[in-house]
Amino acid sequence: MACNSSGCESGGCYGREKENGCKVVDVKETVRLCVKCKSNEPMTFGDGGSDDGRFCAECFRSNVYGKFRLAVTSHAMITPSDNVLVAFSGRSSSRVALQFVHELQVKALKNYEASRDRSLPVFGVGVAFVDESAAYPSLSGGMSDAIAWVRSTVLSLSPPEKDLHVVPIESVFGSDSVEARDRLVKLLDSVSDETGKEDLLLHLKMLSLQKVASENGYNRLVVGSCTSRLASHVLTATVKGRGYSLSADIQHVDARWKVPIVLPLRDCVWQEITRLCHLDGLKTVELARHPQSGINDLVSSFVALLQEENPSRECTIVRTAAKLTPFYFNKIPETDDSCVPMATQRRLKKFNLKYDGSMTTEAFCPICNGPLNGSDSSEDESDALYDACCSSCRFQILPQEPSSLDHFGSLLPHHMISQVKHHQKFDSQTYLREKIKDCLLLDDEEAV
Amino acid sequence: MERGEAKSKKAGGPPRLCCICNEKRPVLKRPKTLQQICRECFYEVFEEEIHQAIVNNGLFKSGERVAIGASGGKDSTVLAYVLSELNRRHSYGLDLFLLSIDEGITGYRDDSLETVKRNELQYGLPLQILSYKDLYGWTMDDIVKMIGLKNNCTFCGVFRRQALDRGAALLKVDKLVTGHNADDIAETVLLNILRGDIARLSRCTSITTGEDGPIPRCKPFKYTYEKEIVIYPFAVSNPHHTYAYFKKLDYFSTECIYSPNAYRGFAREFIKDLERLRPRAILDIIKSGEDFRIATTTKMPEQGTCERCGYISSQKWCKACVLLDGLNRGLPKMGIGRARGGGVNGGDHKKETKAGSTVKTLETKQCGSLDF
């Protein structure tokens, strides 16, 4: 209900003020108090956003940190025996993720040192920074400074100490940097669609993070994606025909990878994150972005426009997508590993009950790792790579001429193409048959 | 850069022959695929794709009476023409009618109805016109005078949907077809995501809806691009229907005078920009909509019938009755926004105004006589 009293801004007049009737707020005379603790003065960020001037600094901070902690505990994202790698781009979202993970670790260390039996170990934290200058040459100018800054930031976040891994994106092709760069450039040049090129780079980025994580003994990859980022992803996935795999990408946990990915900031919006950086003086680095001209950029502008018209639009978009059915891999797998504390195992079991029933395995696209919809399979079995990919990657990444497919396959990193060689068309009949084979009494000739 | 263009640029200038027949010179670039195509091949492929959509989805059975929702706009005019053509050419065996709804919007609907009446003569399809005035006792002009321009589209949409069903029942038709095109459906998918309406999201891409309701309705233009619908009348040439029938833009192309700006407009603009970057994105949105993993439990709420008029409804009263009740009692906000305290009696009694006594009290016609 819009409030008609003068001096009342449209965004700020609901909640308890509505029940009591709206007071005319005159800053000079009355002292405004934080709506949560009612004792401190509220912060004003002056960024024109909603909720400005309602919470004090402490309450604001504890709100955001609270969402992070809730996500971590209810999804068993980080447990005492884990070794966690934080993907750090230097920008606000991953900076906050790194900060919060560090604080969680500090607290765990404190508890460990205070406890008598020292039964719960402290989880390990490492940081990974992907250097994309081989793909975007315009970045190379500021890259060494950026890396130095990242290094000093990570150094400042100790104790406990954290290893920093600077990962050149071309490392997915191997350790010989000259050859790897060359291969990367050749691969990118062979993709004619602008959006396809951007998306392929994202997939390569994830591959490089996975590589560094598994080679260095990490068992969790923390990604700082926030609500706002996911809202854009919902729309880009929709317009690219990726509606089937969408629900896999936007959950708190994505365990289809060798090193499961967790999104502890999934429930925080961009505005909260930037405000927090401002509040805590968290520095970020903005590398000059390659100008994006494709669909991804169009969607970001569209979402920004929608946000102006309604500041809660991003949340609604993600909430809608959250109603889509997730996949069996959107949870931390249960494990009988005796290293995992009993409390964690119990929590996992309780949480995973929701996912029972979907016992299907999925086939995945070798390029984007998206689960494949059965209806996507191509009719003509022309090329193994073409058959194995989802329809979106077929259109925007694979070359259109069938004769170029072989060559393109040779340009892909080994990890992607190796999946194709072993890829068999998912045959549900055979799969089910295999499952019940032991119970069948008829032998093969008599079987229907 | 679109791949089609890249290809033709590499070949050194536009190809000299139509992509499909390789005989004639191309005269246009097909919006859906960017193929360089001649006039004949365009209308042939346009019609053929619609025929495939009809056949592959089993939209009709021979002998069915089918009403075409005809607004006089470009979609329904082209729909009427193409459907009667295909019916004849492929012997669908359908009994086709034009059904038009007069919402009572001066300067808009009265003009577009003239177009529909012309279509009736041109295509030889019988026409039935139903007005909001006859059905509900209110024209849109009356409604807007009462409630202003904020929620008028809600009223119009709800009333039109029911009006089409009632008209179809009056004509004793088996099916209703509407001219919703690919752009419309893509837009609806996006809007449902933006609004959080998961139940509608699961239904909005179906080519046929309401099979368990009074009159099933289908959308043969589900995969047809709006741009192509606009081009089609200029491409078609049939010895029995000369170009003159289409030449004067024999369809009505003005925006409804009450249409609000913003919201749906954002999504429309976005889709236009998207189409420019990647034409197939419109079909990709529809594909995504079809592929979304939505649990069957989130689908249709239980369907009953309205206590007042017998129309299909998931609540005690159907939406049209709720809205009408509000109008008749001078409580135009009733039925708008989220329900409070369940059912039609919730809410704003204290706001009843003196206007209640002078307001029309015609109710929706009882549906007992209509074969629901």
Word description of this protein:
The complex is a heterodimer of chains A (448) and B (372). Chain A is mostly helical and 448 residues long. Chain A folds into two domains: 291 residues, HUPs (Rossmann fold, 3-Layer(aba) Sandwich); 75 residues, no CATH class. In chain A, 44% of the residues lie in helices and 6% in strands. Chain A contains 17 helices and six strands. In chain A, strands 3-2-1-4-6-5 form a six-stranded mixed β-sheet, with helices on both faces. In chain A, α2 crosses α9, α7 packs across α10 and α7 packs across α11. Chain A is globular. The relative contact order of chain A is 0.11. The N terminus of chain A is likely disordered. Chain B folds into three domains: 37 residues, no CATH class; 251 residues, HUPs (Rossmann fold, 3-Layer(aba) Sandwich); 49 residues, no CATH class. The N terminus and C terminus of chain B are likely disordered. In chain B, α8 crosses α12 and α8 crosses α13. Chain B has a six-stranded mixed β-sheet with strand order 5-4-3-6-8-7, sandwiched between helices. A two-stranded antiparallel ribbon of chain B has the order 1-2. Chain B has a two-stranded antiparallel ribbon with strand order 9-10. Chain B is globular and about 65 Å long. Chain B is α/β, with parallel strands linked by helices and 372 residues long. Chains A and B meet through α7, α10, α11 and α14 of A and α8, α12 and α13 of B.
CATH superfamily of the largest domain in chain A: HUPs
Strand order within the widest beta sheet of chain B: 5-4-3-6-8-7
What is the CATH first-level class name of the largest domain in chain A? Alpha Beta
Share in helix of chain A: 40-55%
What is the count of structural domains of chain A?
2
